[in-house]
Amino acid sequence: MGSAIRETGAAAGALGAYLTTVLPRARQELRRWGPLPADKQRNAEAVAVFATLAPRSRRAGVLRAILALQVAIDLRDEREEEGASTAADAALLERLREAWRREVAALPAHEAVEPLLERAVERCEEGQRRTHAAAAEGAAAISAWAEALGAPPEYRWWEAAAGASSSVAAHALIAAAAAAATTAETAALIDVAYQPPVGALTVFLDDLVDRDEDRAAGEHNYLRYYASSQEAAERLGLLAGRAAQLLARLPSPERHRAILAGVAAFYLSAPAAEAPYALPVRARLLETLGPAARLLTAFMRLRRLGERKRPGQAGNSPEP
What are the tens digits of pLDDT across the range 243-282? Predict the structure, then answer.
C-alpha cells in the first residue's frame, strides 16, 4: 500500500510540474521552430516531460535540447515518409542539430552521456527509416537490422526494432546530463532501461491507437507481428514489467516510473484504446503499471473530454 501511494504521489507531482512549468515553456520554445503540424507539435510537447527529470536550475537548457532534437527527428521522419526533401529542410535540420548539441554541451555531465546519446539518436533515425521501408518492402530488411542490434534474447525482433525507433532513450540521457553526479555507468543503465522496453512500449501504444488508420493507409504497424490482441496484451505487459524493473535501478526511479505511467496513460485514455482489439492490451497494462497509471489515465480521459468541448484546443493534450 505504501509503495502504491508513493508512486501515485510521484506521478501526480510529475504531471503537475509538467503542466504548470514545462508545457507552457515548451509551447513558447516551439514557436521558434514552427509552425509545426498538429501531430508533430504533440510529439514535441510529449517528450518535453523528460525535462522534469532534470534539476530545476538546468531544466530550461534540457528542455531546449529535447525540443530541438525531437523537432529534427520528426522533420526527418516526415520527409522520408514523403520521399522528398529540400535545401531549406537540410538547412533547418542542421540548425536543429547544432542547437540540441550546443545545449547538451553546456550540461555538467555531458561527457558521460554523449557517446550513448549519439548512438541513441542514430538508432532512432535508422529505426524510423527501416520502419518506413517495411511498409513497402516487407519485414525482411527491418528484421535483419533488428537482429543485429544485439538486444537481449527476451525481446522479439520487432520489439527490439520498435524500441530502437523511439526517441525516449535520447531524451532521458539528455535529462541525465543535467545532473553533475551522472556517470557513464548511470548513462548505460538509462540506455538499457529505455531501449528496448520503454521505447518499445511508446511505439506499440502509438501503433495501438493508430491501428485502424494504419491498416487503411497501408502503413507499417508493429502490432501486425503478434498473432492476436491477446498475445499483444501478454507481450506488452511483459515489456511494461521489465521496464519497471530496469527503471528501479536508476537514480530517482519514482520519476522515471511516473513518466512510464504517463506514457501509458496518454495512449490508454484515447478513445481508440477502447476498440475491441485494444481492450485486452489496455486492461493488461493498467494492471501491470498499477495505480499511478490508472490515476493518470482517468485524469487524461477527463482532459480529453474537456478539450473536445473547446474548439481549437485539440492537440494541446500532454503526450508524455
Answer: 999 999 999 999 999 999 988 988 999 999 999 999 999 9
What's the number of domains the chain is made of?
1
In a 3-state reduction of DSSP, which class is residue 314?
Answer: coil
| Residue 245 confidence (pLDDT) | 95
Domain of residue 177, residue span: 2-308
Give burial (CB, 10 Å; 0-12/13-18/19+) of 213: exposed
DSSP 69-97: HHHHHHHHHHHHHHT---HHHHHHHHHHH
3-state SS assignment for residue 276: coil
Give the helix ranges, DSSP H, for the chain. Answer: 2-17, 23-30, 38-47, 59-82, 87-105, 110-137, 140-147, 157-164, 168-176, 184-193, 199-209, 211-217, 229-247, 253-268, 279-289, 291-308
Q: Of 254, 278, 142, 110, give the one whose Cα is nearest residue 204.
A: 278
Cα distance between residue 11 and residue 30, in whole Å: 25
Residue 314 lies in a domain: no
Residue 95 Cα to chain centre, angstroms: 23
Inside any domain, residue 318: no
CA distances from 195 to 106, 149, 165 (A): 25, 11, 9
CATH code of the domain in which 128 resides: 1.10.600.10
Cis peptide before 196 (omega within 30 of 0): yes
CA–centroid distance for 149 within its chain: 19
Q: Is residue 320 part of a domain?
A: no
Torsion, Cα 296 78 162 176, to 10 degrees, reads: -60
**Percent of the chain residues past pLDDT 90, beyond the cut:** 67
Residue with cell 550546443: 102
Q: Write the pLDDT tens digit of every residue in 93-134.
A: 999 999 999 999 999 999 999 999 999 999 999 999 999 888
Q: Is 24 exposed, middle or buried (0-12, 13-18, 19+ CB in 10 A)?
A: exposed
Q: Is residue 313 part of a domain?
A: no
